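Minutes, project check-in
Item: structure for the 142-residue chain
Input as provided by the requester:
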Amino acid sequence: MPAVLRRPDPFADLGELRDRALEAWLNSSDRTWTPAIDVERDKNNLILRADMPGVERKGIKITVEDGILQISWEHEEQKDEENKNYLRRERRSGVFYRSMALPAGADASKIKAKTKNGALEVTIPLAALPKREPIKITPTAG
């Protein structure tokens, strides 16, 4: 019976590599968490909503600089839990950070924020923009 030659599979170890990279990332204590956000626009406002379960209102920092809205929060790991016998520990200390460019007409001086049931809602008032008139193109002689 003739020998069967098989080409090596160059992707055979990628699954294991992905799993190891994910495990290393999950065990990293200095990772940044980025909360998912929804952005809605009504007639007068831009409304940003972010799920932030377990985040206390007093730790949230919202700033506007150079037309960029920035939301951040830092959480430190509980030190009194060091000697517990965890079987799995995924809730870590860390920082979250989210930013977005504000649209033209956003009034940064009137931004309001509130939290309810683990969600942050930021309301950004929008000034009425002047109606844009189309530019007329004149024919050239020639």
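Outcome recorded: Strands lie at 32-33, 37-41, 45-51, 60-65, 68-75, 94-101, 112-116, 119-125.
No further action items on this chain.
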